[in-house]
What we know:
Homodimer. 10% of the residues lie in helices and 45% in strands. It contains one helix and nine strands, in the order αβββββββββ. The longest helix has 19 residues, at 5-23.
Amino acid sequence: MDINPLNLIASSVFTILFLSSALLPTNSQQFSRKLSKEEMGIKRETLSHLHFYFHDIGSGSNPTAVHVAQAATTNSSSSLFGAASVIDDRLTEGPQISSKTVGRAQGMYIFADSTQVALSVLYNFVFTEGKFNGSVLSILGRNPMSSAVRELVIVGGSGVFRFARGYAEARTISMNMQTGDAMVEYNLYVFHH
């Protein structure tokens, strides 16, 4: 019987492929799958109210708000349109800067309105005290400085605040336009597990 070398090679390749696929582990990752709340350790949802003061210091030898960008038009704009700052501000229990620190506000704000002083903000409130120590809330939104009360969106969090959602109310207590120093009172209303 004549054996065709091409048939022999094809048969060998098929056998090798078949055996190797049978011997490979079958625990492949899925792109998505449905999870139960129990798998993720999610219990009942809690609504928490957090109250603290935000100290944005742009002056002195140790500022917590640093101006990092400025558009050429900012110099002539009364709204500071195009300016951007990065922050690492203290969050305190009371309005005095010497009050107990409960966390840090880290992120940035951009002057994003060409007609009025309004910020587009991206903050992470990093908590360092109590049951929220080590947890973070992420804040996003438009902050028109001329409004007495501004609402920002809580878009998520980590630690105790996994799956968080809610809103933050900001009220300016004091602001010095010459130095850039400001103190803002925050009330956060957040659903979390």
